[in-house]
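Researcher: Dear colleague, please comment on this protein.
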Amino acid sequence: MEDELIKIFNRDRHPIGVSSREEIHKQGYWHETFHCWFVSEVEGTRYIFLQKRSHLKKDYPNLLDITAAGHLLAEETIFDGVREIKEELGVDVAFEKLIPLGVVDYSVTRDLLIDNEFAHVFLYKSQFELDNFILQEEEVSGIFKAKLTDFTKLLLGEVSSISVEGFEVNQLGKKERINKQVSRNDLVPHEHCYYEEILQLINDYLKD
């Protein structure tokens, strides 16, 4: 995976070549990613879905993250981003069903990792139930949903924890249903401004 070739860009989003994933994160090259947030509505209550990253992941193992996300490879366009949904969550979603929320500049430096992304962010109004998801276990170990209002309050610091429901895949490959409390420490530490911008984009769209 670290040897995968990915297009790289300058800060003005002009392509300047290709590089390996490892080198991209070592040198801090700007590159394109695909972020898709699933939301659903049940009896007037809106939910947002979070994947739990596998314990096998190099970065941020066991933390809750964007529903589905990944790098766009050198030969791919943004239309190919839906493969991340199929690979990670085991469900088919047509690109035409995604709602584009824009391109968000995402930048974080942690230890030896420099991650500079042009993140193509999408919203998907999901009809899937939790049991529909078939997870790519080396990437994703669980899927959870939280009330969108609760998730917003957590990220804005208005509450210290919220309830989520979902499942994790145990060592025998079986799904275990789980209801639990999570705090900010259970989430991938994306920049606060990223979370704020994403929540604003999602909530603004859902108002319409």
User: Anything to note?
Assistant: DSSP finds four helices and eleven strands in the chain. The CA atoms of residues 23 and 29 lie 8 Å apart. The first helix runs from residue 21 to 27. The chain has one domain: 5-207.
